## 1
Amino acid sequence: MDSAGTADFDLADFHIAAPAHPEPEGNERRRFRTIWISDIHLGTRGCNARLLIDFLDHVDSDMLYLVGDIIDGWRMKKRFYWPASHNDVVWRILKRAKRGTRITYIPGNHDEMFRQFTGLSFGGVAIRRKAIHETADGRKLLVLHGDEFDAVMLAHRWLAYVGDAAYVTLMRLNVIVNAVRSRLGLPYWSLSKVAKHKVKNAVEFIGRFEEVVAHEAEARGVDGVVCGHIHTAEIRRIGGVDYYNDGDWVEGCTALVEHFDGRMEVLHWAEEVERRKAAQAAEAEQAVPAAAGALVAA
Ligand SMILES: [Mn+2]
């Protein structure tokens, strides 16, 4: 592994600067024993960094697993895209390590350039190919990204691009294709119909992936498995094991958490934010009549 071998992706390009949006001070954070997040795809426009920053500012944990595809090196090779919000995500993660959160980073296929550092630690972040997590209730969970099963799932390889907003592109293309067709006097032809067929295949793909991963976990004698990769959060009992997927921060914006008693839960962060806003609005509404009442009394 010489330095030339890493020339296509230079880690020296990364200067983790002070955050553009500092962490809020003294806000109450929900505490969990463990948090798993993956498929953040930093370095792409699809990454929902703002929502992830909100998540990081409202939760804390003893352990944090970064389950792959954190930085999208594939895309960064083509075009360097690194807005301040993406820097803020990395800064917050490194800050947590400093505060004492035990962080394990398991690179995925989009950030496979970090796999060469397996076994090493940087800034308190341990880089591993896979990990065994022991839950508070004594279960052993195999933690891995999930692209290890791509070979098995080769027939559905196109889904590896699920984060690329291929569907949106397809829909735009649909408009153009049909504008041209109409000018040529040809009838409407639905590209979206083709895409929908693919989506139906996607549902089958997800089910198959989950079963393949669970099967492998069972063969390795663990009680469960935590992975990412397919951008579909899930908690499901499959055969003799518990299958967990922490989802992604491109579309779903989800995290998997372990409570202090070992109970596992998927957090849907967009919904959490909506709930918080609604609660704040209700509180403000209650405050207004009370103030008005005070005025009347005076
Ligand atoms: Mn992946």
## 2
Amino acid sequence: MSLREQFSGWNPRLWAGWRPNGVGEQKPNHYRDMVRVAWANRGHPRYAYDVLTKGACDGCALGVAGLHDWTIDGVHLCTTRLNLLELNTADAFDPVLLSDVAPLRQRTGGQLRALGRLGHPMRRRRGERGFRRVSWDEALGVLAAGLRDAPPERTALYLTSRGITNETYYVAAKAARALGIASIDSAARVCHAPSTVGLRQTIGVAATTCSLQDVIEAPLVVLWGTNPANNQPVFMKYLYLARRKGCRVVVVNPFVEPGLERYWVPSNVESALFGTRMSDLHVPVRPGGDVALANAVLQRLIARGAVDRAFVDAHTEGFAEAEAAVAGQDPDHLLALAGIDRSTLESFVDELVRAGGAVHVWSMGITHHRDSADGVRAIVNLALAQGGVGRDGVGLMPIRGHSGVQGGAEMGAYATALPGGVPVDAEHAAALGEQWGFPVPGRPGLTAPEMVEAAGRGELDVLWMSGGNFLDVLPDPPAVEAALGRVPLRVHQDVVLTTQMLVDGDDVVLLPVATRYEQEGGGTETTTERRIVFSPEIPRQVGEARSEWRLFADVATRVRPELRASFSWPTNAALRAEVAEVVPLYAGIETLAATGDSVQWGGRHLAADGAFPTPSGRGRFTALVPAERRLPDGAFVVSTRRGKQFNSMVQSQVDPLTGAGRDAVLIDADDAAALGLSAGDPVMLRSDVGAFAGTVALSRLPTRTLQVHWPEGNVLIAGSPDRREPASKVPDYNAVVTLERRDPTPGQRPSSPPG
Ligand code: SF4
């Protein structure tokens, strides 16, 4: 945005208020945060500067290289990225710290990260007080021997998206298959796997159909169960620019997220000064009521003659069945399931009709439910009904929280997909095996939750993890801890210490690895808009940390030396050339070499002009029946929410947007009053698997619903298979709970933050 544009076109009707920079309001103080981050990185200011100005952000998947993206002029930077900077500038801690794990177990994840970087390979056998430093040769020898001895079906490999590049995912996916291991999975599982399932079945491709530019050009943006103000902060800048052009915004979410009501975009003078009203309509859907809501909306679009019949006839199939399905559903019952009134529904439909299509954005509020794939299909139904795919200013956008989620699945680090996102079956495995030169397992492997389940049953001999922390991410942490402790060999490679590394085991090995910036030859990530973005190597050696793509190759060839040629790339660029061959979707990745280089697979729009990549070439409507839910008398539904955090890494004990502490139990003020509860009262939530000691935070929420922060709230969430979305295996991160006042006795302290 030019200086002239910064000071022109101001629209006081969008202002949040007259107080300069919202002084006195509950809101983030971006400028103070920047000063704090500068201080925290004072040990290596030059390196921090290089990471910010040359690297592709290792935060969320909006995507930026250096300080500039491909959507807006001007600076693209947020405090999430700044807070992550410390991980990239920290020095290695003294390995003697690990000689006794007992005191380390008293620390939170954040306190463990604050120790600094994991710099040396470490090993701990059962019965030993702590870890001892070992050579790389010993550490990799232990891992290779374990992999050699264990049947592949008793071995699992999991990677999280902690800055992991496409190149590392690809080599990990190839190494796993070379060793016969089908059970490789990544953070894409517990994030957007239901989106993958729902989108592939309906539009033929599991990715955002539009580009971020379409958000700025959209007449309407609908935010379903997502809070970019927290999780993708620069998205708020896009929304601000869109609203300057007249874009309307509807928020479909149980909670009125304050950051979606008004936000101060720090790099836009008008918004920084007066704030911006970021939404026009809040639709307070009940948790799990999305399918009912979308069906009610579809009924009304049909009744009002607002369906794009020409598009539907020319480019879709299944509309008659979907129409018949919603025609048979009682509108009042749908509204009751959705928890909204008729006038709110009509206002939502008015917005859609006026706009003639929207960019539909969603994330964990849609995907973390038992019927989440149906939630995605329901949103697709609305988009198809309005011809809202494949043209400017509209689209389907499962917005990603990690910079590596999209790429992880597309590189084949996924239990249910091979590189290119192709299904795991005998035919595709054979074709890939032909290319790679060794047999590839033709069956899907264990997903992340299933790995832990198998571990708990004693069916895993080796669990090899790159980053991640199952103790934080998966439901029912006590059960996860018990399961991890049963695996004879666990190998954790990471840049920092995490709580799961401290779980006892027969043999636990820690491997120090390089960050994406330190990685030999640089690497790429894939953003929400399918843009493959290059991040150059910014050289730095921390302890004995190694580049992960080299590491996976090394382990594969230690176990199968005869495959050395398949895992020997002279450079990272040579590896990218192979990726381009094996994954044609990624053609162009081999040309990326400098900051700002990128290639967007599929172009600005997928399904452009209604040409869907489905077998029939048509987008597919789904006839959906919303799930019925009965809440026992006196019970509440609790959902898990995010505060100021990057995925499970808590960055602040108080959410600057809501003012809520990590132990907050968000409850509607009327529900609280009915129970005689006031703000700050200590309460206990109990589900069928655990209890959460928290503190009342009065909010506006649908009646008999609560929210607690994730991952702390995972103690309430069941991990059993019947509580997962059946196709994607994603846990339902909601629970039915009772709520009671508790005495603030020492035995009932607020649930402590893991992050
Ligand atoms: S919005 Fe996302 S991609 Fe952009 S700087 Fe922040 S964390 Fe990085």
